[in-house]
Amino acid sequence: MQMNSDPWEIPPKPAEVAENRLVKAILDRTFPINSVLPPERELAELLGVTRPTLREALQRLSRDGWVEIHHGKSTRVRDYWREGNLLILSSIAHHKELLDQDFVTQLLQIRLLLAPEYARLAIEHGKQQVLRLLENLHTLDDSPSEFSKRDWELHNQLTILSGNPIFTLILNGFGELYLEMGSVYFSNPLARDHSRSFYEKLHSAVLSNDVPLAEGVVRQVMQDSIDLWKAATTHHEG
């Protein structure tokens, strides 16, 4: 008999399984935007769950902006890109197999807008902590996974030091995707070299207490990372 590798791992509840299956069916266009879901009894049978379990799953999806429920009417799949919320983004990030390259590029564009600001705030609120973070990056194993992990830790800590927890919540919503896609990104040696240079330039700017320079360094590197991501994915696919 095969034992569970993690005795503390709690298996997902039936409603969570149904919710996940419905999200996947929406993303792969089995149930496209603005379509209506099958009647409750039929949908419950398709998912292999009871009707009360299905109702619980649908309530979760309604809360997050995936579907629109009206009693006595069919449940509509919302245009989640326009009617959804941040919980939608976290769910999408857990279905990496259904994401296209544009989605990650769009996330990097958001990081371009946010990172200079949370870096600036972090330096203003905790210069010495930022310096220690960057000094720990002077020596890195030359592996994509190591760079992905340490880069994630840097940005995560910068959001925390910024004093604005919303930055951290947004970034944490993509932690798993960040680490996995980061390994692809850093598979390009140019990306690793670019980040080494970034850490050094940022450290120099912080050390000299030049906050505008540090903010500019972050902004430029976030912009460059979009082009490097495209190059990395082209190389990875090839």
Compose a concise summary of this entry.
This protein has 238 residues and is mostly helical. It has helices spanning 14-27, 40-47, 51-64, 80-83, 86-93, 101-135, 144-162, 165-172, 175-185, 189-207, 211-237; strands spanning 67-68, 76-77.
Uncertain stretches: none
Question: What radius of gyration results from the CA coordinates?
Answer: 21 Å
How many helices?
11
Widest sheet: strand ordering: 1-2
| Tally of DSSP β-strands | 2
Largest sheet descriptor: 2 strands, antiparallel
CATH top level of the largest domain?
Answer: Mainly Alpha
CATH architecture level-2 label of the largest domain: Up-down Bundle
Report the CATH superfamily of the largest domain: GntR ligand-binding domain-like
**How many separate structural domains?**
2
| Termini separation | 42 Å
Beta-strand portion reads under 5%
Structural class, please? mainly alpha
Query: Which percent range fits the helix content?
Result: over 70%
Q: What is the element string, with H for helices and E for strands? A: HHHEEHHHHHHHH
Shape type: elongated
- Average pLDDT rating: 89
User: What is the CATH T-level topology of the largest domain?
Assistant: Four Helix Bundle (Hemerythrin (Met), subunit A)
